[in-house]
Amino acid sequence: MTDKVLGVILGGGQGSRLSPLTQTRSKPAVPIAGKYRLVDIPISNCLNSGIHRMFVLTQFNSASLNKHIKNTYHFSHFSTAFVDILAAEQTVQNAGWFQGTADAVRQCMHHIVSHEFDYILILSGDQLYQMDFKDMIEKHIEANAEITIATIPVTAKDATDFGILKADEENMITSFIEKPKTGLEDWVSDTGAEMQGEGRNFLASMGIYVFNREYLINILNENEEEKDFGKEILPRAITESRVLSYQYEGYWTDIGNISSFFEANLGLTDEIPKFNMFDSNHTIFTRARMLPPSKISGTTLEKAIIAEGCIIQASRIEHAVLGIRARIGKHTVVTNTYVMGSDRYQTLEEIELENQKGNSLIGIGDRCYINNAIIDKNCRIGNDVKINGGAHLEDGDFELYAVKDGIVVVKKGAVLPSGTVI
């Protein structure tokens, strides 16, 4: 697999639906599950599948993503493995930015084809799932397909948000429609008894593709006006080529907006989460940090995930994820919240100086109440702060925080003075 397949991970566009988490970073660089970045998910899926050569295509706010990949993915000098960044660049042939998923691959193709491979695996950098790509590629080869699209059964409610496919008895895709709003009854597929029992009768594209090398080169060169795989390249290819549907039935979610991001993170605290971080066959790789174990004093914990290096003195943490180096003060209650943590510790001297000045420290202070919130990295939340998200709050974007679908998102590095109420 290492010799046959090359992985390409798309860094995504501006990520406006995930704002304000994407104001200073790209979508794949957004912290998830307390200690990882979103880009770690597709990279880990590749490594677990024996695919050790990957390019990550980036454009917007890529500095933190570049730094994370540079500091994380190191391989032996005797190995051909790599995870390399390909940033949008001006060339003699093209002076513009990436205009879509297909255009991004097209503009980077001169770097990609310098490597030997038979198949190219194209992935999104902002999805949460665990998939064995070996099986997908083997099915692609067995079917003599030119393209394979990973598909997942979805309900009628969800079908309107995806590209929906129809396949024949050999799983060859025969038709495609982008985000259908009407006429759904014509797009029902035989997804199997178990999926149909859950009302998941429609095959949705997951944005995960396998292409034969020469086929991809040819189809990108044929019509340079086609900028996007899902909207332009694939609908045309389905009418002209052998396009296989590879049906996946495990957990998968597209981290497209604040609500889905929030639910995906808090879902990890379930007794048996749909996304299993504890599966030794699907290790999630990330940057190795030399952090101390977390220290917890006088805290009641209920359905909580706590990363390394935290200092917790809260009275209660419930249904919450606490990221690396999170600091939470005495008599504080945190519920239904993702606290991303911080990039550094303050020294005792810094803490003493900040206390003398009456400034808030990095972390969450004493006697706070935090509910239905996302606290981005390096925030300073003073004492006696109350944040109570919920349906009663109107959506809005403010200087220090934003509200989306009732979720209060405190912006990266924000300083909330003691006594603040949201």
From TrEMBL:
Belongs to the bacterial/plant glucose-1-phosphate adenylyltransferase family. Keywords: ATP-binding, Carbohydrate metabolism, Glycogen metabolism, Nucleotide-binding, Nucleotidyltransferase, Transferase. It is an enzyme of class 2 (transferase). It comes from Pedobacter agri. GO terms for biological process: glycogen biosynthetic process. This is Glucose-1-phosphate adenylyltransferase. The keyword Lyase does not apply. Its EC number is 2.7.7.27. One of its GO terms (molecular function) is ATP binding. Transmembrane segments: none annotated.
